[in-house]
Amino acid sequence: MKLKKLIESLEQWAPLNYQEDYDNSGLIVGSPDDEIHAALVSLDCTEQIVNEAIEKNCNLIISHHPIVFKGLKKLNGKNYVERVVMKAIKNNIALYAIHTNLDSVATGVNAKICERLGVENTQILVPKSGILKKLVTFCEHKDAESLRNALFAAGGGNISHYSDCSFNLEGMGTFKGDEQSNPTLGKAGVREYANETRIEVIFKVQDERRLLSALFENHPYEEVAYDIYALENKLQSVGSGMVGELPEEINGTDFLRLVKTQMGASVLRHTDLLHKKIKKVAVCGGSGSFLLKNAIAAGADAFVTADFKYHEFFDAEDKIVIVDIGHFESEQFTSNLLIDNIQEKFPNFAIRLTEHNTNPINYFI
Q1: Is 65 marked within a binding site?
Q2: Is 161 flagged in the annotation as binding?
Q3: What pLDDT digit, counting tens, does each position of 93-109 carry?
Q4: Residue 103 is assigned to a ligand binding site
Q5: GO terms for molecular function, please (predicted)?
Q6: Angle subtended at Cα 320 by Cα 315 and Cα 321, rounded to the nearest 5 degrees
């Protein structure tokens, strides 16, 4: 199939505008019009992974971490990033990354960690803002219902677990067309008065083009009157980290044992265990120290993440147990998450999990 068909599916799940500013998710090497016949999935994209893709006749590599974070000024193979890109291009292998956008969705990386740990009743720890907009338009009362339905079908009016959400207000509108106009109501050159309905719907930024297409295709007026407002509201289903509860509270030692076993960690770094049992748990795949204050504010008893620096452990201040399991360890099951999603959408497409452990960190135990 065409690569763009798979990309559309992945980005419907984890839209690119959900990624952080520093990130570089998306298609890094290749064309959306490339024909793909098999894909290799891994956490990282290294030379070893490209070689494996060549051996297994995969012309697409899907990784969680982008191989290119910063702009490349030269391609002469002097470092592993340049060598990976060069080898992929030479062997007609497309490279696609799905990173912090997959971290941010409610069914993404953090949901997988919660699933592994048995954390239930989950919600986003820090919901993301800047994703929602509001469309306001006006039409005659008689056309309002059909126009609302068209906007709903295009993705408007979805708020959390609710759909078909809108606000409607009836009022009087005026207009006067010039000699070149062809008004739906009244005559050119005459001021007309129309009983109109003001329709307001919230939508996600990535749905704007689709929503406007539905508006223009279904609005009866020659000139469509509409406004779009950027909202500061936070989208509760998108954001950083996740928090939830264990089925039953357990003591600190048992919790550490659970984390080590379920996350396949060789070693755990953690703060002092507190004199209370653990019930509420916050998680963040990858580097999550920036969310410590949010985890404490959410009332979490423990915070499972990675990449805490020495002095950052002091910030727990006996309010929470920090459990640093390692960056690779916190995200290693992301590959399985990706494969499950792709197989569900494209059951006949060849998708393979890498056989290589790309963790650059080794432990001497």
Answers
A1: yes
A2: no
A3: 999 999 999 999 999 99
A4: yes
A5: metal ion binding
A6: 95
